[in-house]
Amino acid sequence: MKSRYVILLLSVGLLASFGGALAYRYVFFDSQARQGPSLSGESQPAVNLVGQQRPDFRIGSDTGEWVSADLFDGQVTLLNFWATWCAPCRKEMPMLVELYEEHSDQGFEVVGVAMDDVQQARDFAEDIGVTYTVLIGSTDVMAMVQSYGNLSGVLPYSVLIDRDGIIRWTYAGELDPEELARRVKQWL
After folding, report:
1. Which uninterrupted H or E stretch holds 127?
2. Across-strand partners of 161?
3. How far apart are CA 187 and CA 6, in angstroms?
4. Nearest residue to 134 (alpha-carbon basis) of 54, 57, 60
5. pLDDT in tens, 40-52
6. Are 155 and 115 in contact, with CB atoms under 8 Å apart?
7. Which contiguous run of DSSP H or E holds residue 144?
8. What pLDDT digit, counting tens, does each position of 166-178 carry?
């Protein structure tokens, strides 16, 4: 009798785990496919904030300091939400370093916002030579990415903000280097 009870509990536990895994996959991976490209060929976030004032934030950096949105006032800023476990995020980061170094003297900032473990994000950013600002968190970063229009949590997710703090472009998915460079130059 006890063995049947144990088997029943294990079966229920496995089914619950499987259901949780499906829900996670649906929310974080399939949502990009559900959103699909727009008529212009761009992947659309859940909420379109283009043309609106950027939301405020205050998140810890990889150096342990608190960083607020107003630190980047007067700059053209690219917020790039990423994680060490996200393959497309890892792939595009060297390109972001290059773009930042090419245009930083013109008032361009890249802010990498990692939804990750602090030490893992720090180590990864150091390993690939990230020279731009890196912010790191978990629930605070999840709240931040949602406030910037990404309700589904798709990573990478990027937001381009002009010098006046107005959101000019958002993109869910791996960035195309030429498209990003064109958009950045448009606002410099």
Report:
1. helix 118-128
2. 77, 167
3. 63
4. 60
5. 344 444 589 999 9
6. yes
7. helix 139-147
8. 999 999 999 999 9
